[in-house]
Amino acid sequence: MRKSIGRLRVIIAFIIIILFTAVNGFKFWQSLPKSIKLDGLGRDSIVEWDERLDPLKKDLPERGIVGYVSEKDIPGLAYSDTDEESEYIMTQYILAPLIIVRRVNTDLVIGNFGSIGYQEAYAQELGLVMIKNYGMGIYLFKGNPK
Amino acid sequence: MIIKTILVFLPSLVVGFLVVCLCWARPIRINLLFKLFLGSGVGLGISSCLYLFWCLLFTPAGQGFIFFEAALAVMLGFVLFQQRRRAVAVYQQGDKVFQSRGNRIILIGAGIVFVTLLSLLSARFIISAFQEPNGSHDAWSIYNLRARYIFRDNKYWKDAFSDQFEWPFHPDYPLLLTNNILKVWTQFKVDSPRVPMVQSGFFLFSTIGLLVTALWRKRGPVQAVIAGIVLLSSAYFFRLSDKQIAETPLSFYLLAMAILIVAYFDEEKPRPALLSLAGAAAGFAAWTKNEGLLALAVFLVVMIIYLVINRNWIEFLWLAGGLLLPLTTVFVFKAFLAPASEFFAGRDFVDLMSLLTNLNRHQMVLKVFAKKILYMGETQYPLLAILLVYALFLGLRQLKQFEKIGAYLIGLMIVLTWIGDYITFVITPYAIDWHLTFASRIIFQVYPMILLILFWIVRAPDDLLSVKGTQDERK
Q1: Most distant CA pair in chain B: distance in Å?
Q2: How far apart are CA B62 and CA B154, in angstroms?
Q3: What is the DSSP letter of B226?
Q4: How many whole angstroms separate alpha carbon A62 and alpha carbon B153?
């Protein structure tokens, strides 16, 4: 009798674990095939952003502090918080050992206006002078160190 | 590059394995896998700490660190050889685990599920590693960024911790992951994303291996495999593990700390060297992530109070010995390299007290915490409640008095860590809504510890299926 109760408890406990494992993992493993993207394997956000910033690199110093502006810095412009922060962080990662700061009081300032397109008024708003347009929303400005 | 990376990590892994063997004082072949998994994390921790001092003495540009590690491994190997010559092997064999057909069926069935899940997870990790070779947000903004900065500008490497960096880049964050990445990049003179990927893999599979082998050695294969299945079935655990971030390494060191404390209290005559290793693991947790500092503080408070109450002064010294390297490393980094943490910068006691006494904040944090703990791992059902039901069905085993102490201490550490995390959120200088989005990750850091304790104290299925006597007592 005691052995039977013991077996029943084990069976019920096993059912709990099996259900737990199945439910817990089901959605994750179900999404596995969709998450595999064989085209562009090895090309993540960093790789793509690196390509976008590549033409800019030769015009930047080897080390030092460089400013950074984007739609977030222009009053009234819409932007996505997530995208905006990710792009700023990726810019810092790719351009290391430069320190990229969200200021305009540096000698050089990188502009990222990819999502809404740049207008001359933005530079005026921020007190910047455009040096070069690299395409895909990436710009280099002369900063306002004062 | 992956093979080369593993080869450069090899001396660290060997050092860690030898240190574990020295502390374990049992024949090396006994519980070999467990020692390998534990040793991998210990070795990566030791290596990272020593590398900081190497950089301070010789700058990061020096490529000789791997030879230094190899020499250290040879030296430790010699010491271990001498120790083994004098040691008496202790080996006891209890009754066999597989006496009944029921046990074999359970083990085979559970084993198939475990191997299947492990294979799927491995495949998923490999795919993820190639799809997102640079990891995720925290990797770009903290760990890999710091390594890249130092690698590309090793002449002015200390500027990697400049307070000019804006707050998302956390220049005050500890360097366990960063240093291990940097030493390999320096060795090969290329900042390949494969390196942080390999390190992530080490910690992911070592965490799983550590939990399973730790339980296997004392609770038997069935219990160990079931615990492994429960861990492997967590999609959230996997999602945190393949992003080159610090959550899983931190979980590894917390789990290692818990295992070593349990192992210390597992015998009537405890081995104090295990306390040293536990202290080292807690120290490496602090060297991995700032949340590890909280875990270290909790560990120190609980263990020191216990040792002082019991007047175990010799054990206290062993504990201090294990903490020496990681604690010194953290201190040197925080005192001489890192800028002030933005968490406390510019804040005074009055400011903190006003937040602590704000009932609205407590209500907000408590609500989120309760939900995240109950639905740990961002599951859609109450995970802990289900595990509790599992435990109730199987029942708790009769713990010996000294075993109970270990279990209570670990349970206390988990609770105190969560209380500390709770307070951290209440006094956060960041927008509280935003910061609470990280609550799941923070709370989940102790999940492997919870599984360890649960499957440590709950009866194994084969205990209920009429297996007599003890499990295999290989030490």
Answers
A1: 67
A2: 10
A3: H
A4: 9
Per-residue pLDDT tens digits for B284-294: 999 999 999 99
pLDDT (0 to 100) of residue A144: 81
Residue of A nearest to B226 (CA): A17
Nearest to A13 among B164, B380, B390 (CB): B390
Q: What is the pTM of this model?
A: 0.92
The reply to whether residue A32 touches residue B124, judged by beta carbons under 8 angstroms, is yes
Instruction: Give this complex's ipTM.
Output: 0.88
What would the two tokens of residue B447 be?
A: 């999940």
pLDDT of residue A32: 66
CA B203 to chain centre: 8
DSSP 3-state of B430: coil
Sheet holding A108-112, edge to edge: A99-101, A65-70, A108-112, A138-142, A129-135
Q: What is residue A68's DSSP assignment?
A: E
**Are the C-beta atoms of B278 and B260 separated by less than 8 Å?**
yes
d(CA B133, CA B127): 10
Question: Which residues face A99 on adjacent strands?
Answer: A65
**Chain center to CA of B56:** 26
Are B296 and B288 spatial neighbours (Cβ–Cβ below 8 Å)? Answer: no
B395: left (phi over 0), alpha (psi -120 to 50) or beta: left
**What is the distance of C-alpha A9 from the center of its chain?**
50
Nearest Cα of chain B lies from the Cα of A97 at a distance, in angstroms, of 5
Q: Does A77 touch chain B (CB under 8 A)?
A: no
Measured between beta carbons, the chain A residues lying within 8 angstroms of B389 are 16
Confidence band of A3 (pLDDT split at 50, 70, 90): low
Distance between CA atoms of residues B255 and B261, nearest Å: 10
Is the preceding peptide bond at A145 cis, omega within 30 degrees of 0?
no
**Closest by Cα among B462, B466, B468 to A3:** B466
CB-nearest to B153 from A17, A27, A97 is A97
- CA B258, CA B252: separation in Å to the nearest integer? 10
- Note whether A57 contacts B: Cβ–Cβ < 8 A: no
Strand pairing class (A129-135; A65-70):
unpaired
- Separation between Cα atoms, residue A42 and residue B62, nearest integer Å: 30
Contact A28 B235 (CB under 8 A): yes
Among partner residues B113, B153, B238, which is closest to A21 by beta-carbon distance? B113
Q: Which of B148, B230, B234 sits opposite A93 (nearest CB)?
A: B148
* Structure confidence by residue, pLDDT tens digits, B280-323: 999 999 999 999 999 999 999 999 999 888 888 888 999 999 99
- C-alpha B267 chain-centroid distance: 23
**Chain B: residue whose CA lies nearest to A7:** B465
Only one residue has tokens 């993992």, namely: A25
